[in-house]
Amino acid sequence: MSVNSRPSLDLCLPVYNEAAILADNVERLVGFITAKDYGLDCRIIILVNGSTDQSAKIAEHLSKKYPNLVESRVYLLPGKSRALLNYADTSSAEWWGFVDADLSISFESLAKLFEVIVNKSADLVIASRFLPESSCERAVYRGIVSALYNKLARHVLGTTVKDHQCGCKFVSHELWRAVRPFLRESDYFLDTALIAWAERLGWRIKEVPVDWADNRYGARTTKVKLIKDTIQFLVSLRRLRRDLKSYRE
Fold it and tell me: Domain for residue 1, yes or no?
């Protein structure tokens, strides 16, 4: 990318049985992206993974409605991380990233993350719900579990970020090429592994405080399976710690 060129961004929307909210939220996202010039060229990439509802058909319709702005991909197996890994490996954009399909992040906050990309002040940009300036509305038990997980992750992995799992992150193509060989195909753990390896390899990370509200637009129930996911996270933390300790520059 030349000094004066606009960065390109593939904004991924992982989708698993989101037919109830997909069309409306993509329309909202399209409206946000086209409302003003943010200084970058952004495409919306809908990643339908393992869905058994009408999500794939809705995604296809949206890609035909907005052929230059929206693209859809369908993966037969479920798994957010798996779908993101598969897509990122094929992306030619200078940046790629993702937001949750329920658009929990406010558009004002999303614009702040875009600013970091345009200003070239980081290689990995993270939306954070745990900075002093952040605003977060979610179920009390989910907030407690998330806070405990982040504290444990920092202790086990030696990371410094406040929020490992917020569902909005953007990574530069250069960073992605550097960390990709170290990432496993996990359904749960891409966020944390990406951060840990980026820190371990010395890349620039920027946390941005955001306005976050679970189920911001309604019509959606959480897909979090608290006990199962917690066990998987703990197992993955231990494995990642081992991988990080065994790395030699």
Answer: no
Cα 168 from Cα 241, distance rounded (Å): 23
Residue 17 sits in a domain of what CATH number? Answer: 3.90.550.10
HSE, CB side, 13 Å, CA atoms: give it for residue 119: 12
Whole-model pTM: value is 0.92
Among candidates 110, 143, 90, which has minimal Cα distance to 40?
110
Backbone angles phi and psi of 16, in degrees to 5 = -130, 105
Q: Nearest 5°: phi and psi at 144?
A: -65, -45
Q: At residue 147, what are phi and psi to the nearest 5 degrees?
A: -65, -40
Kindly give, in sequence order, each residue whose CB lies less than 8 Å from that of residue 50, ignoring residues fewer than 6 positions away.
16, 75, 76, 77, 78, 79
Task: Tell me the C-alpha distance between 186 and 205, whole Å.
Answer: 22
DSSP 116-130: HHHHT--SEEEEESS
Domain for residue 3, yes or no?
A: no
Q: In this predicted model, what pLDDT tens digit does every residue of 174-222 receive, in sequence order?
A: 999 999 999 987 767 899 999 999 999 999 999 999 999 988 887 666 6
